[in-house]
Every structure is written in C-alpha cells, then in structure tokens.
Design goal:
The protein is mainly alpha-helical and 143 residues long. Helices cover 69% and strands 7% of the residues. The protein is built from 7 helices and 2 strands. Strand 1 and strand 2 form a beta hairpin. Helix 3 crosses helix 4. The two termini are 25 Å apart. This is MarR family transcriptional regulator.
Length: 143
C-alpha cells in the first residue's frame, strides 16, 4: 500500500511542479475546505477531514510557511482561524485544471485495472469502519 500511495502522490506532486504550482497532495483537503468555507479553525479541519489534531496542525503550519494560508484571530480570540491568501486564491484556476487532470488520470487507471481502485479503496475503508485493522490483527493473534 505504501508503494502505491507513494507512486500516486509522487506523480501528483510532480504534476503540480510541472504546472509551476507550489502545492503538495496533502494540502488538497485543507485547501478545498477553505475554498468552501472561507475560514476554518484547526478543530473544524479535524472534524471535517478526519485527520488528527497534530497532523492538521502540522499541515496547516506548512501551508502558512508556503504562503498558501494565513492565520487570523477568531471573533472570541481564543482560537485562530485559517484563510486562503490572495496568492492562493490566484492559484485556484490552475489548481482546478491540475485536479481535473488528476481525476482523469485516476479514471484511466481504474479503467486499466481488473477492479476500479477507487471502489476497492472505498470498500476497504467502509469495512475498516465496521472493524478496525487493529481488531483484525488481534483476532488473528488469538487464533
């Protein structure tokens, strides 16, 4: 699985570079969320995207360093909110073109496989919601 994820992520990241975009695959869900909501806190990102708080914080901080988002105070001043920078907003048309090409490539890959990869991954994730892989390992160890 790691080889597959690495191959896919590396190709997508190279496509961003080839298009002159300073963007990484791991930014995608956060960027899309901020496109849809205008702003979000770390907690809202965690709840909406399903990542852990440390992972969300790390990715958001990296996006701040890359100039894609900025941190702004919330109304109650107890939390920080993140918004897309003007430079990031200017990238949206090019990013959408890259995302469309990536989606097309994913469809082409699915068509070339005996079973669509996307459907297989979705089915695996649904099964893991019902029974975690950790539980399956424990069950096998108990045999």
């Amino acid at each position: 699985m790691r080889l597959l994820v690495a191959a896919l992520d590396d190709a997508v990241e190279q496509a961003y570079r080839d298009a002159g975009l300073n963007f990484r695959p791991r930014f995608y869900p956060y960027f899309r969320l901020l496109m849809a909501r205008d702003s979000a806190s770390v907690g809202e990102c965690v709840a909406a995207l399903g990542f852990t708080q440390p992972a969300a914080t790390q990715t958001l901080q990296t996006m701040v360093r890359e100039g894609l988002i900025e941190s702004v105070p919330a109304r109650d001043r107890r939390e920080r909110r993140f918004i897309l920078t003007p430079a990031a907003r200017a990238m949206i048309p090019d990013l959408e073109a890259a995302w469309a090409a990536t989606a097309g490539a994913a469809r082409a890959l699915d068509a070339a496989l005996p079973q669509p990869l996307g459907a297989t991954v979705d089915a695996a994730l649904e099964q893991l919601q019902r029974q975690s892989f950790g539980d399956l390992i424990k069950k096998e160890r108990a045999r």
